[in-house]
Amino acid sequence: MIDRETLKPGFEIPTISRPGDYQYWNRYAGVNYEFAGHHMDDAVGQYEGFEAAIGMGPFIHALMHVLLREWVGDDVGRIVKVGMQSRRPWIRGRTLTEGGKVTNVREEDGEIFVDLELYGDNDKGERLVIGNGVVAIPA
Amino acid sequence: MTVTTLISPEMAAAVGREYQWATSYPIAESDIRRWVSAMYYPKTPPRLYWDAEYAKTTRWGGIVAPEEFNPFAWMRADPPGSMGPEAATPWPELDLGIPCPQFKANIFAGLEVEFTKVRMRPGDVIKSALRLGGYHEKEGRLGLMLFTSREDHWTNQNGELVRISRGNLIRYL
Questions:
Q1: What are the residue ranges in chain B where pLDDT is below 50?
Q2: In chain A, domain spans
Q3: Quick one: pLDDT at residue B173?
Q4: Residues of A with CB under 8 A from a CB of B
């Protein structure tokens, strides 16, 4: 259950992390039919101009939903919107950490809507993605 | 010869057209269990997604799929036998029946998804209608990059809108 005291602009929600390795990527590939060579083979990633294989963008986006639900609570909250833009690839071997900050809180039609800025960084401190999200909980 | 644009007149003329329609098989509880097992690995996923008795006690009244769940992965009910062409060839020109530009690789650029209050549940059949949003180009680290935007509307078997997604794909030489 979300602590309603956290529903304030500036509050930083708890982060989540995933190692950039095939144990995680292949599970996502298996459920989302993501079998492009650059997600499975360092040589393909290198041919396409990257240091190694790269993680799936839709996986990074999907994990933003997990990030939001782990904060707001699956049973109570609902996700209204998740937007994300890529800045750098998630290179195999680098850990992804996603987080976010509350930017606005408003009440509408019996629900509290919370706007957030979202991000995904690697363990070198490089920003891989930027994003935004909206969650709603009953007022 | 230096390529100055990858956008042909046929591509420009196709902007705004719907080009791909799909219908999912009914969503199975095991589809949802597998999805959340991948998303939450190595943790045990929340019970809302796999424990029917527990899920009944929540505001949702039963098991629901997580918002990001994709019922179109693997085979689709319609087109029959379709094995997820969107994942294999996410660019639209083949379905639009127009020539596809030459490119070396494609990568995901971004995605924005808006969800309604209608959740996907076991037994639901989801329909997708995909539209070409537009093209634009810019020079980047990878050279000339072609951005392709697509908009996808999902509705359930009751005709209720479930989500709208707007995605961007980058192709480069």
A1: none
A2: 4-138
A3: 78
A4: 23-24, 27-28, 30-36, 38, 47-49, 54, 56-58, 61-63, 65-66, 69, 74-76, 78-86, 89, 138
Question: What is the reported pLDDT for A102?
Answer: 98
Q: Find the residue in B nearest to A62 (Cα).
A: B68
Residue B32's identity, in one-letter code, is I
Local structure of residue A18 (DSSP, 8 states): E
* Fold type of domain B9-27+75-172: Thiol Ester Dehydrase; Chain A (3.10.129)
Using CA atoms, how far apart are residues A36 and A53, in angstroms rounded to an integer? 10
How close B158 comes to chain A (CA, Å)?
20
What is the per-residue pLDDT for B172? 84
Angle, in degrees to the nearest 10, between helices A57-72 and A22-32: 90
B34–A34: do the CB atoms touch at under 8 Å?
Answer: no
Instruction: ipTM value, please give it.
Output: 0.95
Residue A45 pLDDT exceeds 70: yes
Interface contact A61-B111, CB threshold 8 A: yes
Q: Are A36 and A111 in contact (CB under 8 A)?
A: no
| Averaged pLDDT, A53-62 | 96
**Largest pairwise CA distance in chain B:** 65
- Which pTM was predicted? 0.92
pLDDT of A71 > 90? The answer is yes
Dihedral (Cα; B79, B85, B89, B94), 10-degree rounding: -10
Pick the CATH number of A4-138 from 3.40.640.10, 3.40.630.30, 3.10.129.10, 3.40.50.2300: 3.10.129.10
